[in-house]
Design brief:
Blueprint: H1 3-10, H2 14-21, H3 29-42, E1 59-64, H4 70-85, E2 89-94, H5 100-110, E3 115-117, H6 125-132, E4 137-140, E5 151-154, H7 156-169, E6 175-180, H8 185-201, E7 211-214, H9 218-230, E8 237-240, H10 243-255, E9 265-270, E10 283-286, H11 289-301, E11 309-312, E12 315-317
Parallel strand pairs: 1-2, 1-3, 3-4, 4-5, 5-11, 6-7, 6-8, 8-9, 9-10
Antiparallel strand pairs: 10-12
Helix pairs in contact: 1-2, 1-3, 4-11, 7-8, 9-10
């Protein structure tokens, strides 16, 4: 019996079943009892994850959500360097709206040592397929919400909290946010929650109209900043959840005849090369992209018996795009 078939008997999702067999964190007692009773009645147990010998591992597969994005491009570059050193081949495939049947046929044909997921959106059918068919999988650079797979990431909520708190300490009380959609767990939901908590702790608010959701490109950032201008909000600083979008927001601010940081402070996220190619250079939340790549591949190579999360440190790279709002 597959996990999907068992989940149907329990009238829950496969992800809920996997959470039950991985500790049951967040499950209601009623749902947990239903799964337990159904497992007792059917004799269902999740299939053991098979460990491969290192000599058999010659390739791995990466599923990435975005092709033209500085963070993912730099992450892929570091993964390629690590793969070359380990004499591994890597295959990169899109994770947005994949043909699951073709993906499964390809994975079975090449029999990789494992799979890296470069993000984990909510209710992801690709993740369910990988779990159901027992592919060794690591979530690379994002949070594993369901705790089904090992994950290597920063604490995005804490990083966003620190970024918003940095702007607050500079005297900014009215912030704008340019964010990925909340369905993106790490780059959207977690970071929004971190910002809201920082403002709440400072006795400040983040009205819904101060947040613009969109894509992740430079053009998306430009359009999002235009939307903030159209709302005529009293914003003195904008926190943008990627360097690419921040570069677009900077262009929009300039096109409106304003300057960064004299008129509006701008805080970015990721610390990719683009953050040093703008004028002024972007103050940004730095992710250790090289370490994320290295540790993810190490986990895939030496796959753990139970899922684990490796949380790496973040820092704030203080450059010229933020200023003290209270200074004369």
């Amino acid at each position: 019996m597959t996990i999907r078939e068992f989940a149907k008997l329990c009238n829950v999702s496969p992800a809920t079943v996997s959470r039950y067999f991985n500790g049951g964190v967040g499950l209601s007692p009623a749902i947990a009892e239903t799964i337990r009773q159904t497992a007792d009645q059917t004799g269902y147990t999740p299939a053991a994850r098979m460990r491969r010998s290192r000599t058999a591992c010659e390739s791995f597969v990466i599923f990435t959500p975005i092709w033209r994005h500085s963070f993912f491009n730099e992450l892929l570059a570091y993964l390629e360097q690590a793969a070359r050193k380990a004499a591994l081949q890597m295959l990169v495939l899109p994770s947005r709206d994949p043909d699951l049947k073709k993906c499964l046929s390809l994975l079975k044909a090449i029999s990789p040592m494992g799979v890296l997921l470069l993000d984990e959106p909510m209710d992801d059918p690709l993740e369910e397929m990988l779990y159901e068919h027992q592919f060794h999988t690591v979530v690379c650079g994002a949070l594993s919400l369901k705790h089904v797979f090992p994950a290597v990431h920063i604490d995005d909520m804490a990083a966003a909290y620190d970024g918003a708190n940095y702007l607050i300490r500079l005297g900014h009380k009215n912030l704008g946010l340019i964010s990925a959609k909340p369905q993106s767990i790490s780059s959207g939901f977690q970071r929004i929650m971190g910002c809201k908590k920082a403002l709440e702790d400072a006795g400040l608010a983040l009205p819904d109209e101060h947040i613009v959701y969109g894509g992740s490109s430079v053009q998306d950032g430009y359009s999002a900043m235009n939307q903030l201008f159209e709302r005529r909000l009293p914003i003195s600083a904008v926190f943008v959840f990627s360097d690419d979008m921040a570069a677009g927001a900077l262009a929009s601010i300039t096109d409106h005849g304003l300057s960064v940081p004299d008129d509006i402070s701008l805080l970015a996220f990721d610390n990719c090369q683009v953050s040093l190619e703008t004028r002024p250079h972007l103050t940004t939340i730095a992710q250790p992209i090289d370490l994320i790549a290295a540790r993810s591949l190490e986990l895939l190579w030496d796959y753990p018996e139970t899922p684990e999360s490796i949380t790496l440190p973040h820092t704030i790279k203080k450059r010229a795009s933020c200023k003290n709002f209270l200074a004369p």
